[in-house]
């Protein structure tokens, strides 16, 4: 596509400046420098390219080359070249200032949009209109993945840029939005393209040196993005509370935990009733609670549980018997196991016994 023609008024009084510089050897005044900075800013706002504008100045220099310099007067030549340098430098400075301001405005608009999108603020219809500017069609279903690393990240940091580069190289034509929020990496992708979020999870896990990634379920509409985002955040928190070490957590696989804690008071009552007596043990409830947790995670296999806890099977058996004595529930009895295991999950979710119920 041909570049737009640059009008003569973009150059201002450039020809006159060159003529006067050749005749008197003068340099540009402060007012002239400021005028050409303004011309550069206006050219940037008009959408012209800096390379084309510099080329236009060089063409005008050749066309308006003063007679004194053309006769070979070295003083005049030096003065003209100095005026060219000053003029183009001032013009480029104004152009670059305008571009930086535009970039800052774009960044601010993008950040405002992302905040509104992930917090569910602003009018949903207006939000959907703004989303098209950033490549999202909110009328469709979207899913959100969130990655947490060992440190907080901003969009300008190396880790987000590395992940974004990998995503764009793999999915250049997809409607994807990658950003950061509250120090975490966030990827929003169409719900019909789970491969995007799987690849994001792989790249984010590697770039954050083992950080955990959570993926929300796909949901439709502007409110669907914030719903999926909240699910991903909840999954990360669930992973922390439950000591889940999976590199990728899927909200769809963890739905049982929100169900268990929906009635927090009932869950707290169960934890107190089933596990409260463990606090009478020597050393408190934590060692025996950990024993139960590992026992259930090991499929109630004593040998595997003992290995994970670095205990002998005999020592493990003693602990299980002690739990039976204190609580009245036998972890090896299927009739008692369900209540105990549910209480152990509840204890993790409620951060008991560290927090009093």
From TrEMBL:
It comes from the Bacteria. Residues 120-238 form the CdaR GGDEF-like domain. Pfam families: GGDEF_2, HTH_30. InterPro entries: CdaR-like_regulators, CdaR_GGDEF, PucR_C-HTH_dom, PucR_C-HTH_sf. Residues 288-344 form the PucR C-terminal helix-turn-helix domain. Gene3D superfamilies: PucR C-terminal helix-turn-helix domain. Belongs to the CdaR family. This is PucR family transcriptional regulator. It comes from Streptomyces nitrosporeus.
């Amino acid at each position: 596509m041909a570049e737009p023609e640059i009008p003569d008024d973009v150059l201002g009084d450039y020809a006159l400046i060159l003529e006067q510089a050749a005749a008197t050897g003068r340099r540009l005044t402060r007012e002239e420098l400021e005028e050409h900075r303004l011309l550069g800013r206006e050219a940037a706002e008009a959408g012209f390219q800096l390379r084309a504008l510099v080329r236009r100045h060089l063409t005008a220099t050749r066309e308006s080359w003063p007679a004194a310099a053309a006769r070979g007067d070295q003083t005049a030549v030096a003065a003209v070249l100095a005026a060219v340098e000053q003029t183009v430098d001032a013009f480029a400075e104004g152009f670059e200032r305008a571009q930086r301001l535009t970039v800052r405005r774009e960044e601010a608009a993008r950040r405002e949009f992302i905040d509104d999108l992930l917090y569910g603020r602003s009018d949903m219809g207006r939000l959907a209109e703004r989303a098209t500017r950033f490549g999202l069609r909110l009328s469709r279903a979207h899913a959100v993945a969130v990655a947490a690393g060992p440190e907080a990240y901003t969009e300008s940091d190396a880790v987000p840029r590395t992940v974004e580069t990998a995503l764009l190289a793999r999915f250049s034509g997809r409607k994807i939005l990658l950003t950061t929020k509250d120090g975490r990496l966030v990827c929003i992708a169409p719900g019909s393209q789970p491969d995007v979020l799987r690849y994001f999870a792989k790249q984010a896990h590697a770039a954050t040196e083992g950080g955990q990634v959570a993926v929300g379920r796909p949901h439709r509409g502007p409110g669907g993005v914030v719903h999926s985002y909240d699910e991903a955040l909840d999954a990360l928190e669930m992973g922390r509370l439950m000591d889940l070490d999976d590199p990728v957590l899927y909200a769809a696989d963890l739905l049982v935990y929100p169900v268990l804690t929906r009635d927090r008071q009932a869950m707290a009552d169960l934890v107190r009733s089933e596990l409260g007596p463990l606090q009478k043990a020597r050393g408190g409830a934590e060692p025996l609670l950990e024993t139960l947790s590992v026992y259930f995670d090991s499929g109630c296999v004593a040998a595997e549980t003992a290995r994970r806890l670095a205990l002998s099977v005999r020592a493990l058996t003693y602990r299980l018997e002690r739990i039976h004595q204190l609580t009245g529930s036998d972890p090896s009895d299927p009739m008692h196991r369900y209540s105990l295991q549910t209480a152990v999950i509840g204890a993790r979710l409620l951060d008991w016994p560290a927090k009093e119920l």
